[in-house]
């Protein structure tokens, strides 16, 4: 399988380093794809099918880039994903549609 980047950028290039970044697959129970909070990846509750296949671009977080790299793409990865970014005062979310050819 190849790698795929699911794009997610916060407006105005605000740093997301101190925020919480959650990636979910929509319409699937327990579908946590990736969680970053308190300055690190916290993937103990990650859906098993995504284990060791997800990563953020750590050096890009300060530029407001919360895009997710999904490795070893599978047909089962097809679907809609939600990127949810939150800090104490605001939250933002973006939907990304993945089609596996």
Automatic annotation (TrEMBL):
<dbReference type="Pfam" id="PF07686">
    <property type="entry name" value="V-set"/>
</dbReference>
<protein>
    <submittedName>
        <fullName>Butyrophilin-like protein 10</fullName>
    </submittedName>
</protein>
<dbReference type="GO" id="GO:0050852">
    <property type="term" value="P:T cell receptor signaling pathway"/>
</dbReference>
<dbReference type="InterPro" id="IPR013783">
    <property type="entry name" value="Ig-like_fold"/>
</dbReference>
<dbReference type="GO" id="GO:0050863">
    <property type="term" value="P:regulation of T cell activation"/>
</dbReference>
<dbReference type="GO" id="GO:1903037">
    <property type="term" value="P:regulation of leukocyte cell-cell adhesion"/>
</dbReference>
<dbReference type="InterPro" id="IPR050504">
    <property type="entry name" value="IgSF_BTN/MOG"/>
</dbReference>
<dbReference type="InterPro" id="IPR013106">
    <property type="entry name" value="Ig_V-set"/>
</dbReference>
<feature type="domain" description="Ig-like">
    <location>
        <begin position="1"/>
        <end position="95"/>
    </location>
</feature>
<keyword id="KW-1015">Disulfide bond</keyword>
<keyword id="KW-0472">Membrane</keyword>
<dbReference type="GO" id="GO:0001817">
    <property type="term" value="P:regulation of cytokine production"/>
</dbReference>
<keyword id="KW-0393">Immunoglobulin domain</keyword>
<dbReference type="GO" id="GO:0005102">
    <property type="term" value="F:signaling receptor binding"/>
</dbReference>
<keyword id="KW-0325">Glycoprotein</keyword>
<dbReference type="InterPro" id="IPR007110">
    <property type="entry name" value="Ig-like_dom"/>
</dbReference>
<dbReference type="InterPro" id="IPR036179">
    <property type="entry name" value="Ig-like_dom_sf"/>
</dbReference>
<dbReference type="GO" id="GO:0009897">
    <property type="term" value="C:external side of plasma membrane"/>
</dbReference>
<keyword id="KW-0732">Signal</keyword>
């Amino acid at each position: 399988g190849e790698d795929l980047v699911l794009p997610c950028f916060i407006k105005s290039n605000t740093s997301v380093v101190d925020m919480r970044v959650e990636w979910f697959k929509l319409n699937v129970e327990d579908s946590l794809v990736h969680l970053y909070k308190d300055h690190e990846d916290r993937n103990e509750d990650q859906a098993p099918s995504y284990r060791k296949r997800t990563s953020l671009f750590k050096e890009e977080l300060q530029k407001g880039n919360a895009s997710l790299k999904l490795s070893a793409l599978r047909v089962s990865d097809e679907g809609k994903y939600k990127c949810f970014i939150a800090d104490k005062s605001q939250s933002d979310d973006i939907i990304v549609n993945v089609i596996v050819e």
